[in-house]
Amino acid sequence: MDIFIQLTNSPIAQNQWPPGSGLTGARAEFHGLVRGEENGAPISALEYEAYPAMAEREIRRLLEELAARHACFAITVIHRLGLVPVGEAAIFLRVTAKHRGPAFALLAEFMDRLKQDAPIWKRRAIPAATGVRLPSYGSLTNSARRAPLESREALAAIRSRCPPLPAVRIPLAEARDRVLREAVLAAEDAPACDRSTRDGYAVLQDDPAAEFVIRDTLHAADWKPRPLQPGEAVRVATGAALPCAHLRVVMLEHVEHAGDRLRILHRDDTPNVRHRGEELKAGEPLLCAGQRLTAGDLAALASAGCVRPAVNPRLRVHHFTTGDEIVPPEQPPGPGQIRDSNSILLHALLAAVPCDLTQQHLPEDMAAAMRILSRCQSQLATTDLILFSGGASVGDLDFTRPLLEWLGFEIVFDRLNLRPGAPLIFGTRGNRLAFGLPGNPLSHWVCFHLFVTAALAGLSGTETKPVLRGVLAAPLETAPHPRETWWPARLQLESGRCELTPLRWNSSGDVTVLTKSNALLRILPACGRLPAGAEVEFLPTEP
Amino acid sequence: MNSIFTPMQILFFAQLKDATGYAAIELPATAPLRGDQLWSVLLERFPALAVHRTSVRLACNQEYAGPKTLYCPGDEVALIPPVSGG
User: Fold this and answer.
1) Residue A357 near residue A347 (C-beta atoms within 8 A)
2) Mean pLDDT of A290-319
3) What is the Cα–Cα distance from A56 to A73, expressed in whole angstroms?
4) Rounded to whole angstroms, how far apart are CA atoms A309 and A294?
5) Could you tell me which of A416, A424, A429, A417 has the C-alpha nearest to residue A389?
6) Does A119 sit within 8 Å of B83, measured CB to CB?
7) Contact at CB, A430 and B19, closer than 8 angstroms
8) Cβ B85–A121 below 8 Å, yes or no?
9) pLDDT for the residue A399
10) In angstroms, what CA-CA distances link A20 with A3, A23, A71, A96, A468?
11) What angle do CA A51, A57, A63 make, to 5 degrees?
C-alpha cells in the first residue's frame, strides 16, 4: 500500500481527485472538522501540537498494520498543527481500494487507533469570545475577574513566578551588568605575599639598628625570597614582593645611603607593607552569587582567573504597542492622534538590562492582531517576557487580556489597588511571563519600576531593589486617596540625607513629569497631606 | 556511536511544556539510565512533573520505550503525555 503522511501548519488544500487507475473500485475521503464548541463552551479554534518525527512513524506503523488486514491501494493522511479555526479540517484521510469494504474499514479503524499512540495533542481550545470584538470587557474574558491586588501582593505573586533562567558561561568582557550566578572563591591569598607600599628599604620589623648593609635591590616584578638578618636591608620598589615575612619598609625620604651602607634618619609608625592575605584569604568568597557585575567586579574576577563566569542569559523581550491613536514620533499626529512615546520609554528603560528587545505595533482590530501574533508565534514561544503597552483598562477596545489568554497565558492578576497604573495585567505560561502595561506614560514608568523590574530581577537571579527611606524636602499637597499611590519625586542627597521633592502631576498621561522624576514616593491609602520633613518610603528610578 | 560526553536530549510536549517551562533540555549523562533513574533526575529538576508521572509514557529515539529500555547519552528522549490527535 502506498502511504503519504503530512503534518502541516497550513490549511489542508481541497485537492482534486487524481484519475482512477482502472483497478480502483472505491475511493473514500474523511475530513475531521473542528466544531464550534468544546466541553459545552463555544470556541473559535483548536490548537494542535505534535512530536512530528515520532508522530509520522507511529502513523506509518499503524497504517502498515491495518493494510495487512484491509487490502487498500493507497492512503493519504494529513494532520493540521497549530491553530485550526472552527469549520476547518484538523485531519484529512483519503483511501483507494478495489472495493468499498476495506476502504471504509481502514478509515474507521485508523481514526480509532490514531487517538491511542500518535504523539499529537489537542493543546487547548480558544474561547469563541476572543475571536471577535465584543462590546464589553466582561464578555471578552473566559474567566472571572478577581479583586484588585495590593502592590505588595502583586510583587509577591510576580516573584513567586519568576525563577531564575538557567545560567550561561560567557567571556568576562561581555559580563558587565549580568548577574553572577555562582560564588567565586579566591584561589590564592590576596596579596599572595607581603608587598611593599613604598619606595624604600625593607628591614626586620623589630631591628633597632640605625645602620644597615644593603644586600639586594627588588623591583616590582622580582621574586627573590631570602631570610634577612639583623643589620641587613633590601632596597624595594613600590609593589615589590618582600623577600620574607616580618619586615617593615622605611621610606626612601627617611634614609641616607652611600654605596651598600644605609642609615635610617626617621622611622614612621606604619610598616608600609600589604601583608599576605590581608585583603582576602584563599577560599574566601571574592564575589557572591546574585551580584550584578560592575566594572570593578570584572577586574576582581580577572585577578582570580575567572574568565568565563556563570551569569544570567540575555533576556528575550518582545514589546507590542497597541492603540490606533498612536503614530510614530517622527510623524505629526492628526486630530485625535498622539505620538508613540512608550516604545522609546521601554527601549530606554530596558537599555540597562542585558536583553534582546524586539518591538512591534498591533492594530486594535482583534482579528488582525491575532493574525500578526500567529505569524510570530514561534518567536513568542522562545520569548522570556512579553510586554503590551495599552489595551489594559476596561474600555470597549481593550484587548490585551483576551490576546494573552489566546496566546495561552494564565492571567495571575489584571487590576491593582494602586495609582497610577491600576489596570496592570500579569500572566504566565510555563516560565514565560507577560505584562499588559496601562497605556499612559506615567503608568508605564510606575509599573516598570515597581513590577517589571521585579520580574527581570527574578529571571536574572538577583534581589528586587529595596524600598528606601528619606524625608520630604517640600510638603506633599494631596487629598486623601483610597488607593496606595506611587508619587513621582525628585531625589537629592543633602548632607548625607535622601531628600525628596514631590512633583506635580495631574494625570497619568503626564509625560512632562518624567523629565524631572528620579524617584517614586510610596504614599499609603488615605494618607493625605504630608509636611516637609516627614519621613517617607521611596524607590529610586535611576541606578 | 555516541560519545559518553554527548548529553541526552529531553523533549517536553503539551502540558509538560507548561509544567517545566521548556520544550527541550540537555541532560548531562555519562552512563545509561534506567527509566526510574531518569525519572528521579527529571523530578529533582522539575518537581512539577510529579503529578504527570503516572500518565506519561517515555519514548526513546522516537519509539515508545519499554520497562527494560536503557536511556543512553546522545539519545532523544521524549515525555509523552496522553495523546489527543484527530
Assistant:
1) yes
2) 92
3) 19
4) 13
5) A424
6) yes
7) yes
8) yes
9) 79
10) 17, 8, 17, 9, 81
11) 125
Return the pLDDT at A393: 55
Q: CA-CA distance, A173 to A307, in Å (whole number)?
A: 9
From CA A63, how far away is CA B44, in angstroms rounded?
39
Chain B contact present for A115, CB below 8 A:
yes
- What are the φ and ψ backbone dihedral angles of A67, each rounded to 5 degrees? -65, -30
Q: What are phi and psi of A11, to 5 degrees?
A: -55, 145
A113 touches chain B (CB under 8 A): no
Name residue, grid cell 518624567.
A514
Q: Does A81 touch chain B (CB under 8 A)?
A: no
In B, which residues are within 8 Å of A115 by CB distance?
Answer: 83-86
Q: Which CATH architecture has domain B8-80?
A: Roll (3.10)
Which residue in the set B59, B64, B86 is minimally distant from A32, CB to CB? B86
Name residues 320-379 of chain A within 8 A of B (Cβ): none
Q: What is the C-alpha separation between A286 and A277, in angstroms, rounded?
A: 12
Place of cell 482512477: A20
d(CA A316, CA B76): 26
Phi, psi of A158 (to 5 degrees): -70, -50
Residue pointed to by grid coordinates 620589623: A205
What is residue A110's predicted lDDT score, i.e. its pLDDT?
95
Minimal C-alpha gap between B3 and chain A (Å)? 23
Q: Count chain A–chain B contacts defined by CB atoms under 8 A.
A: 68
Dist CA A527 CA A479 (whole Å): 8
Q: In the predicted model, what is the mean pLDDT of residues B16-21?
A: 82
Q: Residue A240's CB: how many other CB atoms inside 10 A? A: 27
Residue A352 or residue B57, greater confidence: B57
Task: Compute the CA torsion angle B70, B72, B78, B79 (nearest 10 deg).
Answer: 50
Average pLDDT over residues A455-471: 91
Backbone angles phi, psi at A48, to 5 degrees: -110, 150
Q: Which of B13, B22, B86 sits opposite A51 (nearest CB)?
A: B13
Nearest Cβ partner for B18 among A114, A120, A429: A429
DSSP string, B65-82: --TT-EE-TT-EEEEEPP
Domain spans of chain B? 8-80
Q: Which of A455, A475, A473 is nearest to A464 (CA)?
A: A455
Query: For A301-314, how does the pLDDT look when each residue is reduced to its tens digit (9 = 90+)?
Result: 998 888 999 999 99
Indicate the residue of B19, B81, B86 with minimum beta-carbon distance to A114.
B86
Rounded to the nearest angstrom, the minimum Cα separation between B28 and chain A is 14
Are residues A166 and A195 in contact, defined by beta-carbon separation less than 8 angstroms?
no
Q: A224 to chain B nearest CA, in Å? A: 45
